[in-house]
Q: What sequence folds into this?
């Protein structure tokens, strides 16, 4: 009887110990799970923060590189525009020094034409000189040169040079009565002003 009672007590203690061990294991497992979740949350937090920092760094670098690219493009555009302008000016004004050297020759031809006697024996010479003058003028126009021949126009000091003034009541003051020497313009720049006689009435 005693042995049976003793066995029941032992069995009861064993069951209680197993129950205690079970609950202890559950508590440990729960704590482990909680710690793992906390660590995972920390890792996720650190990873997210790191990614945000890296993203911000990359964004700053991208903005800086974009700014440099925009400035470089603007500088290249300025260089291209300056080069185009230089080339354009070179094309426009490369003849500035050469063309005026032709003016005395053209003046001589025109003066020679005026001094030829009005005789049929000089018709061939007159035609030849006239053709030469026309070829010269056509060449000047081809290269953008404009001829200033302001007969009967108002005097313009920007394009004309008055070498004499004569009274003429039939026209207004400042009217160009005679063109002694034609002038020339290249791309709105006066290469030589026209030498003229202007009206001046008292």
A:
């Amino acid at each position: 009887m005693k042995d049976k009672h003793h066995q029941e007590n032992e069995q009861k203690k064993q069951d209680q110990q197993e129950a205690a061990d079970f609950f202890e294991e559950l508590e440990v497992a729960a704590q482990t799970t909680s710690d793992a979740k906390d660590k995972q949350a920390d890792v996720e937090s650190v990873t997210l923060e790191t990614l945000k920092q890296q993203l911000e760094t990359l964004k700053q670098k991208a903005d800086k590189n974009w700014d440099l690219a925009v400035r470089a493009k603007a500088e290249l555009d300025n260089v291209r525009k300056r080069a185009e302008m230089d080339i354009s000016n070179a094309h426009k004004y490369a003849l500035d020094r050469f063309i005026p050297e032709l003016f005395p020759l053209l003046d001589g031809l025109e003066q020679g034409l005026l001094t030829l006697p009005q005789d049929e024996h000089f018709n061939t010479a007159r035609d030849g000189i006239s053709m030469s003058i026309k070829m010269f003028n056509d060449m000047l126009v081809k290269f953008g040169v404009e001829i200033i021949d302001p007969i009967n126009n108002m005097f313009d000091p920007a394009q004309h040079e008055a070498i004499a003034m004569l009274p003429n009541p039939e026209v207004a003051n400042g009217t160009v009565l005679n063109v002694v020497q034609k002038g020339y313009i290249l791309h709105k720049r006066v290469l030589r002003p026209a030498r003229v006689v202007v009206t001046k009435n008292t």
In short: The two ends are 166 Å apart (CA to CA). Residues 1-93 form one domain. Residues 78 and 188 are 25 Å apart (CA to CA). The chain has three helices and six strands.
